[in-house]
Specification:
- It is built from 12 helices and 14 strands.
- The protein has helices at 27-36, 39-43, 59-71, 81-84, 87-92, 101-109, 113-129, 198-209, 226-234, 247-253, 315-324, 334-345, and strands spanning 3-8, 13-17, 136-143, 146-147, 156-157, 167-169, 172-176, 181-186, 213-219, 239-242, 260-263, 266-273, 282-289, 304-310.
- It has a 9-stranded mixed β-sheet with strand order 8-7-3-9-10-14-13-12-11, with helices on both faces. The protein has a 3-stranded antiparallel β-sheet with strand order 4-6-5, with no helix packed on it.
- α7 (113-129) packs across α8 (198-209).
- The protein is elongated.
- The N and C termini lie far apart (72 Å).
Length: 346
């Protein structure tokens, strides 16, 4: 190894070396993490599409190279060339030679919808199996609106409060609250209702969780649907779902008695409610806040009310459930977090 020093000082030296260097030396830790997780062995069990030629690249290498490129800052296929030109990274990950970006394009073009679901399911099950500390998880369901400015497939006009009249997608998302990880996601057209295909989405999500048990499912009012609630009850999955404050429930609020005052301006009670299309009544927890006493209370009327549909019996059971599940979300259920803490002190 030839090295020449041309400038030096007390705390530095500048020189030339014939050793190959890389700006991504920190990826050695990434390599150690993948090895400790058994990543290379797991990839072979995911059912990845094999190359059509004996000169093709190993699917394991293509997946590794794709991940490394993302960690190096690649955001489009042409950026994958930065890894191909770095000989140090090629040796670090044990590749004979790095594939060009067109090889990765051809690899992903071999996926169709069925293979994509199969491979993605295997990846998620393997990933969640690595989290041994979590046996029971809190599953959050939500949907969002993504505005599109081009002509992307599935982008149509629908509910878009941010940019009315623009094309959008309306994806369905599932999150594992404790690990702050995405458990599942489906991309849907922009004119899709929040609860559309939610049953199939739930089944796919539960399959991806593998041996993990859902200790609590949380969702907003977009999933306030009788068919969905029946499935959760049949599967014995505890749930907390925000109820739609329709006219029937609003009229019922004026007849409710037995409010439990937790602190000034914050009260709670429970009612039994059965919609016209429901086969049985369900328990609804009503939380109301006074905007005069609580400046950050949501809503424009006094009192401001929030109705939560729950599968647990008794108010105390709900509070205990919220506390034990270490609820972290703010907004719709922030009042319930304060309720749990108040009860625990008493």
């Amino acid at each position: 190894m030839a090295q020449s020093e041309i400038l030096s000082g007390d705390d530095f030296s500048v020189g030339f070396s014939d050793r190959e260097v890389t700006a991504w030396g920190g990826l050695a830790l990434f390599k150690k993490m993948l090895d400790s997780m058994g990543f290379s062995e797991a990839v072979t069990t995911w059912g990845l599409p094999e190359p059509g030629s004996n000169r093709g690249y190993d699917p394991r290498q293509l997946v590794e190279q794709f991940l490394v490129s993302i960690w190096c800052g690649a955001c489009r296929f042409s950026h994958l060339e930065m890894v191909r030109m770095d000989n140090t990274l090629v040796r670090l990950f044990g590749w004979t030679k790095a594939a060009g970006h067109k090889a990765l394009v051809r690899f992903f073009n071999r996926f169709d919808m069925i293979r994509n679901e199969q491979v993605q399911g295997e990846i998620y099950r393997w990933l969640f199996d690595q989290i041994h500390a979590l046996k029971s998880v809190t599953l959050d369901l939500d949907s969002t609106v993504i505005t599109r400015n081009g002509e992307q497939e599935g982008a149509v006009r629908g509910y878009n409060p941010g940019r009315r009249g623009r094309a959008s997608h309306h994806p369905l998302l599932a999150f594992m609250a404790e690990a702050r990880m995405v458990a599942n996601f489906w991309l849907r057209p922009g004119n899709t209702h929040s609860a559309n295909n939610v049953l199939q989405f739930l089944e796919a999500t539960l399959a991806r969780l593998g041996e993990k048990k859902v200790g609590l499912l949380r969702a907003d009012s977009g999933f306030f649907d009788d068919v969905f609630l029946k499935v959760l009850e049949e599967k014995r999955i505890p749930y907390i779902i925000a109820a739609r404050l329709n006219q029937v429930l609003q009229r019922g609020l004026y007849q409710v008695t037995g409010w439990w005052a937790l602190e000034p301006g914050l009260e709670l009670t429970e009612i039994s409610y059965q919609a016209a299309c429901w086969s049985q009544p369900r328990r609804v927890i009503v939380v109301r806040q006074s905007i005069r006493q609580r400046k950050n209370a949501p809503g424009k009327l006094c009192p401001s009310s929030r109705m939560i549909l729950t599968f647990k019996d008794g108010v105390t059971g709900l509070l205990s459930l919220l506390w034990n599940s270490q609820l972290r979300r703010s907004g719709a259920l922030i009042a319930d977090v304060r309720i749990a803490r108040t009860e625990s002190r008493n």
